[in-house]
Design a protein that fits this description.
With 965 residues, the chain is mostly beta strands. It has six helices and 56 strands. The protein folds into three domains: 95 residues, Immunoglobulin-like, CATH 2.60.40.1120; 107 residues, TonB-dependent receptor, plug domain (Ferric Hydroxamate Uptake Protein, Chain A, domain 1); 640 residues, TonB-dependent receptor, beta-barrel domain (Maltoporin, Chain A, Beta Barrel), CATH 2.40.170.20.
């Protein structure tokens, strides 16, 4: 598609999207459908079906069956429904207690018998648990489940009850001790860039897949989409969609609070971790964690206008073992104040207001506003960084405005739409008391940083930063329904403006060795960085046909992505002149057409067993930053030798040597991009997803599902250094350490290459599509078995087993033949088990639990080889007079693993009732077995290799109180 055609498509789509204002809440996927027969089994046309629920502000919706006795009602908000079937000459049939969740089609069939309308047959307690029409995969977490089972109400807590979802081991949470730090989620071989956090179907991520806005856990439902979506779905990874709570015709109020501190936590320094070099005084411990959340909702005008409001305040902090506050942060020496242990702390505030308005008989609006302020108050604090040298990362102000609209124009025609504006500020600021002109100090002998934040600002890199992202989204869709057939077409558009300014204290870092000045590092700061997302546009059409037992879902989606950077100007700074950068029009600009196919077969015709198949193409999510922004090519730092002649620890020009890089402050483009890498039709990295599953209702309320999943990626890129060829590298071997923990210990380790001295330092990189050199593959295959059981009496069980592996193959040479070393990675199949559930006890009590058993982390070993080790095999010293070379891994990847990560959490609850009010007191025990599973290790071979650097947090006790009025 040419540029002019893209512009026309974009303008047409934008006009359509802005027609009556709006962005859909993706509720058209929530539907009730079925077939009405008579006593002989014949289809009954003309039956009036009414669905009613407290979730409907209009109270009820109606439709009639077609000539095949089929009906379908779309766009129903999640909630509890009653369905009534009436026809003159027949008895009325009423089905009660139909639980409808997000993107679920509840099949509700009926058999009418001859009789009068006054005769009513009522059936209750048979809510469908098998969706025999939709083929996408999801985990729906209701507010009731979150309130019942022990979770920290954070991202790791939600992941803990979603089988198949993978989060980094370092993020494994024990009772909310990790706070609200960002965690990426993947499933079935997806990419972290595909992970999106949505509210009412609108993206809230901070650029790419980053996260600034935190979901308020006082939601109605959370739908975690796990791939295989229809043409409405842009991406094939983990899509979290939060449906906020709404008010109702009855006033309600809720309060939740929980608390724990250091006195509520045990120690779990096991003999194993102690034997491997971790000591009790190097294990981080909880300082304090608490959460207070209150909400209320009700009618402003019955059946006309409802409100819901929620207000949350929360905080979490842990002691950083062995680290203390600096007595004098302005001093040139670090002096630990042993009376003030360092803290890794988080805090947040969240306020929300939501209105549900029935503006007319068929027009319903949801309007919401969220305000949030959060602080990662000592972000990235570790034992080698003094507390004042960390950044205070503040997310304020964060404003989220949303409006959605639903218009069922008739029984057959439905319109939906809406808009969302998200204003995100993620500011990386100095700790209180740290002046902007105070340079940081790095003590090189210990790698310890103090006084101010260290690090290197490169492009969008984090040092100190003022950062603003504004997101604008809109969506419009129309659905046509004819009982057994529904067709939906729509458009969604997202634009984004991003601006940030990087800064370094005094534009320099001071480097000391044993307290003696050696050099300074200078920086080009302050430095402006801007980018625009002009269009992340999608046009889709989705057709669903139900023919007796078979339902076909056929879809097609067109995606257009346009990112750019405008002209950028940074005025002259302390160590450089002004910088002017040209605009970049496409970085990238992609067109993609993605087919989607799904089929669901009602195996026995009783809506209790569904055999499903899905297949489709999905594009990769947007990156955090565009790759060809000229700012990223600026030489932002250089070193200067420093002879502090007057011993005042203040660098003066007469004491400084020349710049280590003469191109400092200039744009040096060492990496370019082939045209087809950043532009064109079908060139965006993408994947094909295939799944085959069967879902069966074992008994009312109890369903089991087994499925096979396959994901294959394509359109890989590689970086080709045009200055060299494979012939410009010489082979060598080293001898592996005589360490029994290393496979093939003491044996030669070959397949290593060093560039010829004449080519050392020659760089002219071109990023091209990988198929220029050979075939690259990345394929996931896996199997999931899940259960979802609602047991009479109030008990429930959920979860499942997921096993799979992601195999990669990149066995071709671009530049160095060393790329062939470990070029094919085929890990073993590894299973994860996640279970959760609750069971009532006598005296209005309840016990609930969650259990996770996850694969252990992989073991790797990078190795620093000296010239003396390399030269005998290489036949010469290392190129460039290098004294050492780092070998990324001397162990075949993904062949060795630590022990499994097992975590059991338990909750005991007692309920008290006073009239309409209910009070629940909870006692939680997180990591009940006090496991000390290893979450991170030192991966550099040497004396500290395999020493744990993080283990699962120790057993934690928490108290909670919940009140419902």
């Amino acid at each position: 598609m040419g540029h002019r055609a893209r512009v026309i498509v974009g303008l047409v789509a934008l006009v359509l999207a802005l027609v009556p204002a709006t962005a859909s809440s993706q509720q058209s996927g929530n539907s009730i459908a079925g077939v009405v027969r008579d006593a002989t089994g014949g289809f009954v046309p003309g039956v009036t079906i009414e669905v009613s629920s407290p979730a409907l502000i209009e109270k009820a919706r109606t439709t009639v069956t077609d000539e095949q006795g089929q009906y379908r009602i779309l766009s129903l908000p999640p909630g509890l429904y009653n369905v009534t079937f009436t026809l003159t000459g027949f008895s009325t049939v009423r089905r009660e207690g139909i639980q409808l969740t997000v993107n679920f089609t509840a099949t509700v069939n009926a058999e009418l018998k001859l009789g009068s309308l006054e005769e009513t047959v009522t059936v209750s307690g048979e809510s469908p648990v098998v969706d025999i029409q939709n083929t996408d995969t999801r985990n729906v977490i209701s507010q009731d489940v979150i309130d019942t089972i022990p979770t920290g109400k954070t991202i790791p807590g939600f992941a803990a009850i979603t089988p198949g979802v993978v989060i980094p081991a370092r993020a494994q949470d024990v009772g909310g001790s990790r706070g609200e730090a960002f965690v990426s989620m993947t499933i079935h071989g997806s990419n972290s860039l595909d992970a999106k956090w949505n509210q009412e179907g609108f993206e809230t991520n901070y650029s790419g897949s980053g996260r600034t806005y935190v979901v308020n856990p006082s939601f109605q439902e959370m739908s975690i989409e796990l791939g295989g979506g229809s043409a409405e779905a842009k991406l094939g990874g983990v899509q979290v969609n939060v449906i906020p709570r709404s008010g109702g015709n009855t006033f309600t109020a809720d309060l939740f609070t929980t608390y724990a501190d250091e006195n509520f936590q045990n120690t779990n320094a096991s003999d194993e971790v102690l034997a491997r070099g971790l000591s009790a005084n190097t294990i981080n411990k909880l300082n304090e964690t608490w959460d207070f959340n209150m909400s209320a909702g009700g009618p402003i005008s019955r059946d006309k206008l409802w409100f819901f409001t929620s207000h949350r305040s929360w905080q979490s902090s842990t002691f950083v073992a062995g680290l203390f506050e600096n007595k004098d942060p302005l001093s040139v020496t670090y002096q630990p104040d042993l009376s003030r242990p360092a803290l890794n702390d988080y805090e947040g505030r969240h306020h929300t207001l939501r209105l549900t308005w029935q503006a007319a008989a068929k027009h319903k609006f949801n309007l919401s506003y969220d305000w949030q302020s959060r602080c990662d108050c000592h972000r990235d604090i570790v034992a080698t960084t003094s507390p004042e040298a960390t950044d205070r990362r503040t997310y304020f102000p964060v404003n989220l405005y949303q409006g959605t609209w639903v218009f069922p124009a008739s029984n057959r025609l439905l319109f939906e739409g809406g808009a969302s504006v998200v204003s995100l500020h993620a500011n990386v600021r100095r700790q209180p008391g740290v002046p902007h002109d105070l340079p940081s100090i790095l003590e090189q002998s210990t790698s310890f940083t103090y006084r101010a934040k260290g690090g290197t600002p490169s492009g969008a890199g984090f040092v100190y930063q003022e950062n603003a992202v504004h997101k604008y989204q809109t969506r419009f869709s129309a659905s046509y329904v004819r009982a057994g057939h529904s067709f939906k077409a729509g458009v969604d558009w997202l634009g984004e403006r991003r601006k940030l300014v990087n800064d370094v204290n005094a534009d320099m870092h001071l480097n000391l060795r044993n307290g003696v000045p050696t050099q300074i590092s200078v920086f080009t700061t302050p430095l402006l960085f801007t980018e625009n997302l002009n269009a992340d546009l999608g046009l889709f059409a989705q057709d669903q046909w139900t023919m007796r037992r078979l339902t076909l879902n056929l879809g097609l989606r067109f995606d257009y992505l346009n990112q750019s950077s405008p002209e950028q100007h940074s005025p002259a700074a302390q160590f450089r002149g002004p910088i002017d950068l040209p605009a970049v029009a496409c970085g990238p600009c992609f067109d993609d057409l993605s087919p989607r196919f799904g089929a669901s077969y009602d195996l026995f015709g009783n809506a209790k067993t569904a055999l499903k198949v899905s297949w489709g193409r999905y594009v990769l999510g947007r990156p955090f930053s565009i790759p060809n922004n000229p700012v990223t090519s600026i030489v932002t730092t250089a070193n200067r030798a420093w002879n502090d002649a007057n011993k005042d620890f203040v660098p003066q020009e007469s004491e400084l040597g020349p710049l280590s890089n003469s191109r400092f402050g200039q744009v040096v483009i060492n990496t370019r991009y082939a045209e087809d890498v950043l532009t064109g039709y079908g060139n965006r990295q993408s994947n094909w997803q295939t799944s085959v599953s069967i879902q069966h209702e074992l008994r009312p309320g109890f369903a089991v599902k087994a499925g096979y999943f396959r994901t294959t990626w394509n359109n890989f890129t590689v970086t080709d250094n045009l200055s060299v060829t494979p012939a410009d590298y010489d082979p060598y071997c080293i001898t592996l350490p005589a360490d029994p923990r290393v496979p093939s210990a003491g044996q030669p380790f070959c397949g290593l290459y060093d560039i010829k001295p004449a080519k050392f330092g020659a760089v002219d990189n071109l990023v091209v599509l990988a198929d220029t050199f050979g075939k690259q593959t990345d394929t996931f295959n896996g199997v999931d078995v899940n259960i979802d059981a609602r047991i009479p009496g109030g008990a429930f069980v959920g979860g499942g087993v997921s096993t799979g592996r992601q195999a990669t193959d990149q066995c071709f040479t671009v530049d160095s033949p060393q790329a062939l070393k470990f070029c094919e990675v085929v890990p073993p199949f590894q299973a994860q088990l996640k279970l959760y559930g609750a069971h009532p006890l006598p005296w209005d009590s309840q016990v609930s639990a969650t259990f996770q058993s996850l694969p252990g982390i992989p073991i790797s070993a990078s190795y620093v080889a000296t010239n003396a080790e390399v030269a005998p095999s290489l036949g010469r010293p290392l190129a460039g007079n290098m004294s050492t070379v780092t070998i990324p891994n001397i162990i075949e990847p993904l062949t060795m693993f630590e022990g499994r990560i097992n975590q059991l959490d338990l909750r005991l609850t007692k309920t008290f009732r006073v009239g309409r009010s209910r009070f629940q007191g909870s006692f939680d025990i997180y990591n009940l077995l006090n496991a000390s599973s290893i979450l991170a290790i030192n991966t550099r071979y040497g004396p500290a290799w395999l020493t744990p650097t993080q283990i699962l947090d120790a057993r934690l006790f928490k108290f909670a109180l919940q009140a419902n009025f």
